[in-house]
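Subject: design request, 735 residues
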């Protein structure tokens, strides 16, 4: 530590009359441990060399050795010993002479932080005994040979997660002799999903391989009608990532003694992943301008972001929901908490959490953007972390929602969770943390309300099925999609669903009843809207269909508004207005096509190529309004990736990325990124311009380090075109 910081701490001390020692919330700081701790005056003839002395400690810390193999930590690109709590590991101690159990006394000491204390779990003395008790700290000798002994050491299942310093202490008549500080014997202790007594225990081996050990995942985006997916490199085992993740807990000032608790770790991490109010990892930007930073769509994984933050200590620019969720997933898996990335399609961002999203219509039946404050995100990504919840009643453990995207404050900070998925499903939103907010994201109703001249509100239409239509995550052991909607909600319209809603309302989720407003919808006419699948840069058509189920003839004044939107459902501008009068014959269906030209939308297109259509129709004979909204996305071209040469660990190979520009314009200032955990570090390359219809080819040489199935992920980014991805699975052979 530098001089300035230590004097600051001395200055700070007297201000805090409540505690004798300063807060211990840095895993990086150390205290000085004396090599000779005398019991009193030392006699003149005392020579420490006459006593048992530690000459060397062998940690079995290589990836192929017993500790990392048995603790599933062999993938970490880190030279130090990494073990999981509640499971024995081995070390070998070499003394200056054979160990004599009758007369020699020694013990181990594990220390963390600057002010180690036994009652806080940051100073752990371990005597050597004859038996190891499950779930408790202990050590026993399993082998003796010449001057060395081999120990089996058990850590506690509630032990703090982080980096410990190891000392061996030997008792002499005049004092305690300790080994010198040696960073090579530092030991990282992580959560253990393989251990039944650990709070994060997961009983299925396939799920542990996916949710803890898989370093690549899939992000589902797009919208419900048109689901898109892309790969994301979590890279939790890459060099320095473990240290960067521990640094995040220091940054969040989480007291070391609280770091054995996954609930606390998730809660502080959900705040520190975003830069709002604590200068956390990622600065969000949703306005399509990304000066002095990287566009959210250009990132291919978490490693670059975490390493940049770890070295600069300043927020990395820029992220949107899947970037926050991707980095959060890396953090959780790296520490050993099982985690997965979730996508909720048609996610409600309900500003006053009343389970009701209000879209206000003006006289013509168009949506009034001035009055409408709520928005529906095409999709929103968050994370689930797996853990027991001893702070809640039985039955609410398992998957917990945590969300690092800054949307609303919780207890004064931008954070969200952990909230039990089970509690959300059953409407028990009284249980901490932030369950009402998540409940509203997946359960809101859309109200189309007309403001009359005299200020009264008339509800014209209610859509109860639009929000949270589909909730998905990557399947275990494959790249496909797994539908987990039923884990969050009962089937739409079922008795259980109503009951869960009543429970949520009872626990304080605000819901306005429809009874206190007049609402009689037009039931004998149905309206539907479909958009043709279209490729970016082409014309496409949309179709409005009416079904008149009555015996009356009606005319419907119909209004279509096409808007270019951010994926958060916020409108950038209206690019298409079209109104027409539709004749609806009795007991029949009629369809109307409208063509959308590329020239109408290309100049203002945002990066996710998202459109949002509002359709409102007034039945002239009854004055009733039908309303619909639908998001649609254009097909974005992809990158092609291929390899050249032998795919063998330790041998040079080539990766070739190709892209053909499909737009009717030249692309300027194009950035390509390529990464693949275990194959190559992220590489970036700038290209000045790509004329229309021309193809760009980029060849990268690399030497893959690890054998096995690996994934290459590439992205292309420029102002006119974003969200262009490509990926390739490669099987790297053993040499």
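Subject: RE: design request

Done. Sequence follows.
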């Amino acid at each position: 530590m530098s001089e300035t910081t230590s004097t600051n701490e001395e200055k700070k001390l007297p201000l805090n009359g409540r505690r004798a020692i300063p807060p211990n919330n840095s895993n990086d700081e150390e205290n000085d441990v004396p090599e000779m701790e005398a019991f009193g005056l030392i006699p003149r003839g005392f020579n420490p060399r006459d006593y048992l002395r530690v000459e060397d400690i062998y940690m079995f810390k290589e990836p192929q050795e017993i500790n990392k193999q048995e603790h599933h930590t062999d993938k970490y690109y880190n030279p130090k010993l990494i073990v999981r709590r509640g499971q024995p590991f081995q070390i070998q101690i070499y003394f200056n002479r054979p160990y004599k159990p009758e007369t020699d006394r020694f013990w181990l000491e594990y220390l963390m932080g600057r002010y180690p204390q036994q009652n806080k779990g940051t100073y752990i003395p371990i005597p050597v005994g004859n038996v190891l008790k499950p779930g408790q700290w202990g050590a026993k000798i399993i082998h003796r040979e010449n001057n060395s002994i081999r120990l089996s050491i058990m850590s506690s299942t509630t032990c703090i997660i982080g980096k410990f310093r190891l000392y061996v202490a030997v008792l002499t008549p005049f004092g305690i002799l300790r080994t010198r500080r040696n960073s090579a014997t530092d030991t990282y202790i992580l959560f253990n999903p393989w251990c039944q007594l650990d709070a994060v225990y997961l009983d299925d081996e396939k799920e542990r391989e996916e949710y803890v050990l898989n370093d690549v995942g899939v992000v589902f985006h797009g919208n419900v009608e048109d689901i898109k997916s892309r790969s994301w490199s979590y890279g939790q085992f890459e060099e320095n990532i473990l240290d960067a993740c521990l640094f995040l807990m220091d940054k969040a000032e989480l007291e070391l003694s609280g770091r054995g608790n996954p609930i606390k770790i998730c809660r502080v991490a959900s705040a520190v992943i975003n830069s709002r109010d604590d200068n956390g990892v990622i600065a969000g930007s949703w306005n399509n301008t990304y000066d002095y930073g990287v566009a959210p769509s250009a990132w291919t994984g978490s490693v670059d972001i975490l390493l940049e933050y770890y070295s600069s200590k300043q927020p990395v620019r820029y992220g949107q929901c899947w970037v926050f969720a991707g980095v959060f997933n890396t953090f959780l898996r790296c520490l050993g908490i099982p985690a997965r990335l979730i996508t909720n399609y048609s996610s409600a961002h309900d500003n006053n959490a009343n389970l009701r999203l209000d879209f206000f219509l003006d006289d013509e039946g168009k949506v009034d953007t001035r009055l409408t404050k709520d928005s529906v995100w095409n999709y929103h990504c968050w994370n689930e972390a797996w853990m027991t919840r001893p702070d809640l009643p039985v039955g609410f453990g398992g998957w917990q929602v945590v969300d690092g995207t800054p949307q609303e404050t919780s207890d004064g900070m931008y954070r969200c969770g952990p909230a039990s998925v089970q509690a959300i499903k059953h409407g028990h939103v009284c249980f901490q943390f932030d369950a009402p907010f998540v409940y509203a994201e997946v359960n809101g109703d859309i109200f189309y309300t007309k403001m009359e001249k005299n200020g009264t509100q008339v509800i014209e239409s209610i859509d109860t099925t639009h929000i949270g239509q589909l909730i998905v995550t990557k399947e275990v052991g494959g790249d496909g999609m797994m539908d987990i909607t039923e884990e969050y909600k009962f089937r739409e319209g079922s008795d259980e669903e109503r009951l869960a809603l009543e429970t949520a309302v009872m626990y304080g989720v605000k819901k306005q009843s429809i009874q206190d407003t007049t609402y009689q919808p037009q039931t004998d006419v149905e309206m539907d809207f479909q958009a043709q699948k279209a490729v970016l840069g082409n014309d496409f058509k949309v179709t409005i269909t009416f079904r008149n189920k009555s015996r009356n003839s009606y005319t419907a004044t119909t209004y279509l508004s096409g808007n270019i939107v951010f994926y958060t459902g916020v409108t950038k501008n209206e690019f298409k207005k079209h109104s027409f009068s539709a004749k609806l014959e009795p007991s029949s269906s009629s369809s109307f096509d409208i063509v959308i030209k590329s020239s109408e939308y290309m100049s203002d297109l945002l990066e996710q190529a998202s459109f949002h259509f509002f359709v409102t129709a007034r039945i002239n004979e009854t004055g009733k309004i039908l309303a619909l909204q639908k998001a649609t996305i254009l097909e974005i071209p992809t990158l092609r990736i291929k390899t050249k040469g032998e795919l063998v660990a330790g041998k040079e190979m080539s990766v070739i990325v190709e892209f053909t520009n499909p737009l009717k314009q030249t692309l300027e200032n194009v950035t390509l990124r390529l990464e693949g955990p275990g194959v190559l570090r992220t590489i970036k390359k700038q290209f000045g311009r790509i004329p229309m219809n021309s193809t760009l080819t980029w060849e990268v040489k690399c030497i893959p380090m690890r054998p096995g199935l690996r994934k290459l992920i590439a992205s292309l980014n420029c102002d006119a075109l974003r969200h262009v991805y490509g990926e390739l699975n490669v099987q790297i052979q053993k040499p």
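The chain has four domains: 36-190, 216-507, 525-633, 640-732.
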